[in-house]
Every structure is written in structure tokens, then in C-alpha cells.
UniProtKB/TrEMBL annotation:
Top-level division of the source organism's lineage: Eukaryota
Compositional bias ranges of the Polar residues kind: 1-11, 116-125
Stretch list, region Disordered: 1-25, 116-147
PROSITE patterns: UBIQUITIN_2
Signal peptide boundaries: none
Every Ubiquitin-like domain range: 202-284
The protein, known as: Ubiquitin-like domain-containing protein
Record's compositionally biased regions (Basic and acidic residues): 127-138
Length: 284
């Protein structure tokens, strides 16, 4: 389960076939979040922050018609529920990003339920957390060299190939890889593809250390991991969670003496071949 997007919002609920006096209003501090439970399993949830985070609604999303976007920031979005309609006045600063997450959600659902994507605003790329992998040079039929498959690298390869198959319209291959990753409990999220050029593989070193001697002693040797410029720190956290059972909440990646933020890419961090990461595991 992962949070694909969120926004603060004022919320109003108007029930079906009831007088308007029965409507309910919630403050603009209420939180609306798009939760991804599985590859094509999304739910829209709202919490009443002023009332001990009580759940206002929890609506599974199956089709785009369930959610109607308001024309402007002053016009509320509408969410249909079997008992009535929720009107959402999303926070102006987070509104556009939340709508982008919703758009990607519905494209993803359409892709795997209908066998072909809806017409997207931007071509979606599916991967383990945020930014897009690289693109094949289809005109020459050349595919980038893939790293040698190991437990960690194998997952990165599958994530990479999933993005390629979706961009190239290889639906059967994309569905197969999506199911494979989902069966391994790898959380997947979609993001727009910005048309970047093919990326080169970068081999980096990862040294695991911990405040728990048992872990430090177990992982005395450095690991060699093949990454791409667009690989994020959070992707690495997911890989080490899956392969070594380290919770992402306990993982801290350091490079050049500085803590690397989860949304940083290898390019952001100026990572080169043979760069060394220190992965520090904090055990409570």
C-alpha cells in the first residue's frame, strides 16, 4: 500500500434524495488521499483532521466517471458515492499535483482492465516510485545493455522493462511484468514520461551498516548494484526491503557524507560509476 497523492480540502456531503438540511460540512483542514493498494487497486479516502482523523469516506476507484474535476479552483470536484455526492474544494497549491496523480491512476486502471490505455495527457511510465526509466532506440532496434541479473538487479530490470513495454504498447508483456511485481509485493506507481533519452547503466557500491551489530557483521562486504540516472533512493529502499527485509522507514542512504532524500535520483546526487553509498539501518 502506498500514498499516490494527497491534498487538504474543504468537504461537503449532500445525500441522495434528502433535504439539503441533511448535508454535512467538514473543515478545509480535511485530508483527501489517493491510496494505491495494488497495481490497479486504488481507493480515495478522506480524513477529518479536526475529529481525531475520523474517516469521512473511503471510495474504491474503478472508472474515471466516479470523479469529476471542477473547472477552476473555486469550483469543487465531485465524487460520487452510493449514498450521495462529496464536494471537494482542494487546496490551491496541491490541487494540480493531486489531479495529475488521479489522471495517472485512471490511465493505469484503464490500461490493465481494458487492454489499452485511455488517451493520456502525457505518456505514463510505471515503476516502483517516481521517475521514468529510459527509452529504447526503436528506430535502430537497439536495446540498452541490461545489468547482470542478481536478486537486487533483477527487480530493477523488471521495473525498467515494464516501463519500456508500456511506452511501446506491448500490453501482454506489460501485464505479465506488472502481475509478477505485484505478486512480489513490490508497490508500483505511475508517473508521466518526459521523453528523456536512453540512459546508461551505472554500477555503484553499497555498504550496509547498522546500530545493530548482528546486521553490521552479516553485511561486511560491499554490494555492487546497477542503477540508472533516473533511479531514485526510494526505489533502492524498496529493493532492499524486498531482498533483505529492511523496512524503508529504517533505511538511511548516505553519499559523500550527506543524507540522500528519498525522492532524489542518481542524477540529482551526481552519482558516477563506483560511487559509494552507505546504507545505515536503524533498529529500534
Amino acid at each position: 500500500m502506498s500514498n499516490a497523492g494527497y491534498s487538504q480540502s474543504r468537504i461537503q456531503f449532500i445525500p441522495n434524495d434528502q433535504p439539503r438540511s441533511e448535508q454535512r460540512n467538514y473543515s478545509d483542514r480535511s485530508l483527501v488521499q489517493l491510496i494505491q493498494l495494488d497495481f490497479t487497486d486504488y481507493t480515495l479516502q478522506a480524513l477529518d483532521i479536526d475529529n481525531n482523523r475520523t474517516i469521512i469516506f473511503n471510495i474504491p476507484l474503478k472508472q474515471r466517471a466516479q470523479y469529476k474535476i471542477g473547472k477552476t479552483v473555486n469550483n469543487p470536484d465531485e465524487v460520487q458515492d452510493q449514498n450521495g455526492t462529496y464536494y471537494l474544494w482542494l487546496n490551491a497549491q496541491s490541487r494540480a499535483k493531486f489531479h495529475e496523480a488521479l489522471d495517472i491512476c485512471f490511465q493505469q486502471i484503464s490500461l490493465l482492465t481494458n487492454g489499452s490505455p485511455e488517451s493520456p495527457t502525457q505518456t505514463p511510465v510505471y515503476k516502483s516510485d517516481e521517475k521514468s526509466p529510459h527509452k529504447y532506440e526503436q528506430s535502430r532496434g537497439v536495446q540498452p545493455k541490461l545489468p547482470t541479473r542478481s536478486n537486487e538487479n533483477g527487480l530493477l530490470i523488471d521495473i525498467y522493462q515494464l516501463g519500456q513495454n508500456i511506452r511501446q504498447g506491448n500490453i501482454d508483456e506489460a501485464v505479465g511484468l506488472a502481475k509478477k511485481l505485484a505478486q512480489q509485493n513490490i508497490p508500483l506507481q505511475a508517473s508521466p514520461w518526459n521523453g528523456q533519452k536512453e540512459e546508461e547503466i551505472i554500477e555503484v557500491k553499497v555498504k550496509i551498516d547498522s546500530n545493530e551489530p548482528r546486521i553490521s557483521n552479516k553485511y561486511k562486504n560491499e554490494m555492487i548494484i546497477s542503477v540508472y540516472p533516473s533511479t531514485t533512493i526510494q526505489e533502492l529502499c524498496l529493493i532492499f526491503e524486498h531482498c533483505h527485509n529492511f523496512s524503508p522507514l529504517n533505511q538511511y542512504f548516505f553519499v559523500n557524507g550527506h543524507l540522500a532524500h528519498h525522492d532524489s535520483t542518481m542524477k540529482d546526487l551526481n552519482i558516477r560509476s563506483n560511487s559509494l553509498f552507505i546504507l545505515f539501518i536503524i533498529q529500534q
